[in-house]
Specification:
Elements lengths: L11 H16 L5 E2 L13 H10 L5 E6 L6 H13 L4 E2 L8 E5 L12 E5 L13 H9 L4 H14 L10 E3 L4 E2 L18 E6 L4 E5 L5 E3 L32 E5 L6 E5 L2 H9 L1 H4 L6
Parallel strand pairs: 2-3, 2-4, 4-5, 5-8
Antiparallel strand pairs: 1-9, 6-7, 6-10, 8-9, 11-12
Length: 293
């Protein structure tokens, strides 16, 4: 990095504005705070919103973890980590969730419960859940201001009528602190309950849409449901009614990715969270044949 470049790539005015927007987002949980999203050396849609938040919050003594769909080794995670290391000399990076003070993630919240001294930044493509039912941003702002989510509830009801269940698999609309409904980024349903009264600060950055919003620690985060249709997460039970296990570590309590074994042609399952899978493999519980359950 050239000595003429700022720590964290962005200029100080840009970082200051992002921090102010983040503070406002924390003060008004779930509210989408507009900000002047800067041009970054990557295309919009590849995590520029989350990256601007990370570069504005990170300090020289920070320990950073970057994951993409639970993996530390995907192209998106590796490239973002390399860019942050190049522009933020002095920081540490890690693949261990427990060792990180700042986590940037695309589409997953780690399996391991986060602590009060940690911050997780989620990359967001579409920040507004009302975009599913209302194309006009002006009208969506008015609907948020009046807490009018009736059309969103109608959409969920139509799913129930057509398919006998709510079919939203990710970006599940979630009400924060009993007020605003936000789009929790494309995390699976499995991760939505982790936001409720989480100990860590959860920040969302949408670079293309120029919005920042937050779920502060110990805040109510409740998925939109009907009183007679409870929220449910992904089901990993097999035909016999047994919970499927990760083929690597044997864990039966984590979110699993489905793969097709190219050699045998069989469908296999594996922990989505690479760090969780590695920790479980090394745990004494596994050596004794136990599990985290």
């Amino acid at each position: 990095m050239s000595s003429a470049q700022n720590f964290g790539y962005l200029d100080e005015y840009a970082k200051k504005e992002v921090r102010r927007s983040a503070l406002k987002a924390v003060a008004i949980p779930g509210y989408q705070v507009p900000y002047s999203s800067r041009e970054m050396p990557m295309g919009r849609g590849f995590g520029t919103g989350g990256l601007q938040l990370t570069l504005s919050l990170i300090g020289p003594q920070e320990t950073l973890k970057v994951i993409d769909q639970g993996s530390d080794d995907s192209v998106n995670a590796v490239n973002l980590r390399s860019f942050i290391e190049m522009t933020c000399p002095g920081i540490d990076t890690t693949t261990k969730t427990a060792a990180a003070s700042l986590i940037q993630s695309r589409h997953r919240i780690p399996e391991q419960p986060l602590r009060e001294d940690q911050i997780i930044v989620l990359q967001v493509p579409y920040p507004d859940p009302l975009v599913l039912v209302e194309p006009s941003e002006d009208k969506r702002k008015q609907m948020h201001g009046e807490m009018d989510y009736s059309r969103l509830l109608v959409k969920l009801y139509e799913d129930m009528v057509r398919f006998d269940e709510i079919t939203i698999s990710h970006r599940y609309p979630t009400r924060i602190n009993g007020q605003y409904v936000l789009d929790p980024s494309p995390i699976p349903r499995w991760d939505v309950p982790k936001m409720n009264h989480a100990k860590a600060l959860i920040l969302f950055g949408a670079g293309r849409e120029k919005k920042i919003y937050a779920v502060p620690p110990y805040t109510d985060a409740e998925p939109l449901v009907f009183s007679d249709v409870p929220f449910r997460v992904e089901d990993f039970t097999d035909e016999a009614g047994n919970r499927r296990a990760c083929r690597i570590c044997g864990c039966r309590s984590s979110f699993l990715d489905e793969y097709n074994d190219s050699r045998t042609g069989e469908t296999v399952y594996q922990c989505s969270d690479a760090d969780w899978c590695q920790e479980f493999s090394q745990s004494s519980d596994l050596n004794r044949g136990g599990s985290h359950e």
